[in-house]
Amino acid sequence: MEYVLGLADDALVTAQRMGWWISRAPELEEDVALANIGLDQLGQARSLLQHAGALEGDGRTEDDLAYWRDDRDFRCVHLVERPQTDFGVAMARLLILSAYQNELYAALLGSTDGVLSGVAGKAVKEVAYHLDHAHHWVVRLGDGTPESHARMQAALDAEWPFVEELFTPADPALVASGVAADPTALRGAVLDRIAKVVAEATLTLPEVAPRLGGGREGRHTEQLGYLLAEMQHLARSHPGARW
Amino acid sequence: MAQVYGNDFGTPDQQPGRPQMPPGPADLDPETFVELLADEDRVEPRDDMPAAYRKTLVRQIAQHAHSEIIGMQPEGNWISRAPSLKRKAILMAKVQDEAGHGLYLYSAAETLGVDRADLIDQLHSGRQKYSSIFNYPTLTWADVGAIGWLVDGAAITNQVPLCRCSYGPYSRAMVRVCKEESFHQRQGFEILWTLSHGSPAQRAMAQDAVDRYWWPSLMMFGPPDDDSPNSAQSMAWGIKRFSNDDLRQRFVDMTVPQSEALGLTLPDPEIRWNDERGHYDFGTIDFTELFEVVKGNGPCNAERMAHKVKAHEDGAWVREAAAAYAAKHAVAEGAA
Amino acid sequence: MSTPPSPLWEVFIRARRGLNHVHAGSLHAADAETALRNARDVFTRRNEGVSIWVVPSSEITASSPDERDAFFDPAGDKVYRHPTFYDVPEGVEHL
Fold it and tell me: Which major enzyme category is it (chain C) (predicted)?
């Protein structure tokens, strides 16, 4: 369940951050595109949360898990938690996340957990599009104007310390039984993919020390608490209510 | 003047700014044009048309497009706080549709020889308007329901006849918009239904939202026919098919039974069925509030505009980068 | 904002295999790749398509409404191009 929650929470928190962009994108067309990406991530999160609830076996629904867990019980990585109110940051983060999810879901196609492989089958097409979208913009911003080049590089620098946490080893038993995709095994392909885009964008891969993570064990950034407070407050104000 | 998505009209002391129009290919005289309309039914972009027809259309379509875009904000306000993941997904898809609808409409306006960037400039500088309904705040989750049920309901009542509007690109855009919007009103009704059948607090939230949104929704149809001097022209030109008051009555007739099904009270003690007329009677609308909102004194006028302008300005470097990249690579391809 | 307005593109969508691409609308984009992606997001949110073309609006040459009579009227009286023009004796099938 912890492993599935990790996947689910990455997607849920990403959807929550992406929702902020709707009505704030640089072009109307991009409002529509970012909403699509947010909706895909939200859809993945819902399927995964339902699965996590079923694995737990206590009858918790997707909403119980999304709205009634505290931040210490969330399992997302730090990468997705922080606000992303700069378009360059949003695209840098989307590039990193979708490059990772692309390899992840491709590997999960062969998961011995039938539900996980089913979710992966749908998600793998969605994140391929997210990766394409991020690629498209990172290249245009990197190789656009001097200002956009500088801003895109700064965005990449800002996100880069959070990349390593994506490859935190998963429960060895789950990997051995073929349920989980081994995150450490994804690392090479993910970094390779990102490096190609960064080169095409005339940007430089940052050389910065990775930050200490801890998200998979429930140790988060301070920003996650605010995100959850906003997301959960209405549901929690009306315990037991249907919506 | 035609009503489309609310306040396509000025306050009594102020007429809305007119867009700067490029001269049309030909200024057809209005009488020939009306005959031509009877003959052809639809006008297409490169046909000759009277300058006034072109001007009226540009202003109406632009305002309609602006309304879709500004309309993203009041509901977008609740995306982050939607009380279930299903509702969050529905709301994201709905607000996304509004951006899409704005795009369809800007495209329709562009077939008349204006540029979207100019129209957006005119919105930002206050020379063109958007529907005043979006200057009201969304204070609770139930407001999302009330906007779907009442505001989208009123908009659809206005928009369905526009699917047969005389200008081809506008009517085609409206066909698409109406088809997509059919889920918008239903999801709003469903939100209110769930709330009105929920806890006492949820029920009170629903009633409060209906109390606040009912009268502004009625005002979306514009001033009474007696005060709408340009409607006749728009009707002769086939831009408008029904008068403000007719559409308002149609909306009331549809909505009253729905409110009974919801078990919510519309805040008008004068609503009752009139057997003789075959319609519901309703109270007199106090338009002074609407005129205040149109003038810019509504609860959220300043915030809506500031939000829109900020998004546009914050995105400038991205648009510049896209243009620079395209130019660079067009040259590179040309050289290759 | 000094950015020049991005070019306009016409979008054509094939709804299903076996059908023609049909004009769906137009949109703005700095380049063709962006136009294609935007078209996917704007015009196929509800499964409306399996294939998309984008064409710069400025590249379209259109017939003029002024020439309409000269262009299209001559075809009006050539009724012999339609099968309904011909009499077939009763009882003759598969024709």
Answer: oxidoreductase
